[in-house]
Amino acid sequence: MNSNIRKAVLALAVVAASAAMTGCATPYQSEGLTGGYKDRQIDDQTLHVQFWGNGYSTQQNVHKYFLYRCAELTRQHGFKYFMVIPPAIAGALAPTSSLVRTSGFDHSMMRKTVYYVPIIIPSGGGGVNRHEESADIRMFNDDAVLTMKVTGWDAAEVLDQLGPFVHSNGQTAADVPKAWVFEPGKAKERAQDLLPTAPKKNAASPS
User: Fold this and answer.
1) pLDDT in tens, 112-142
2) What is the DSSP letter of 14?
3) Are 140 and 79 in contact (CB under 8 A)?
4) Where are the beta strands (DSSP E) in 96-178?
5) Per residue in 148-177, pLDDT tens?
6) Can you list the positions of beta strands (E) in the chain?
7) Which residues pair with 140 in a beta bridge?
């Protein structure tokens, strides 16, 4: 086989591999041609995390992969919980503000306004969409100094509950764990337990 034929075969193989990759939903992986996660450290407690998936990925799956990556990084950095910093707060507070501090730390919480709501971005060609979720997260432990009520997740719970989903490339169903509410001077509570409920109707009086 001469060099020209070898080059042609190699080119066809690359095209076939690319077609195969683009025909599948993005798995949990470091960012590549078909998507994945990337992150960067802002300070000792704050990270910027992003996950995007190709047009074959669903927004729900991208959200689960994003939360799993947040939990994975939280544990790797030696923390127990993480919260997603809402863009309204990130834009309204000065860069030196701090919502949650671990004892002994007093670092900058965020340095730029970001979004965390999943979005769909046209990627061009055939109406294929790109699903992306991106945010700053703040990591903390039980000894955190809280300056206001915040909502966050237990990293161990996220890893345990979404692990089967992530390791099966989305083939095993899994629900996102319920968030916790952390408030100064109080034990953490499930966010769902604090939702308002309708008043109970009185039983009809006997005639």
Assistant:
1) 333 333 333 333 333 457 899 999 999 999 9
2) H
3) yes
4) 100-102, 119-122, 129-140, 144-146, 150-154
5) 999 999 999 999 999 999 999 999 999 999
6) 35-41, 46-53, 81-84, 100-102, 119-122, 129-140, 144-146, 150-154, 180-182, 189-190
7) 81
* pTM for the whole structure: 0.70
Name residue, tokens 């002994």. Answer: 104
Q: How far apart are CA 28 and CA 35, in angstroms?
A: 9
Round to whole Å and give the CA distance between 134 and 48. Answer: 7
Hey, what are 58's tokens? 């669903």
Q: Which of 52, 56, 78 is nearest to 65 (CA)?
A: 52
pLDDT classification of 20: cutoffs 50, 70, 90: very low
Distance CA 52, CA 202 (A): 50
- What tens digit of pLDDT does each residue of 65-105 get? 999 999 999 999 999 999 999 765 655 444 444 556 655 43
Other Cβ atoms closer than 10 A to 61 = 21
* 48, 139 Cβ separation under 8 angstroms: no
Amino acid at 152: G
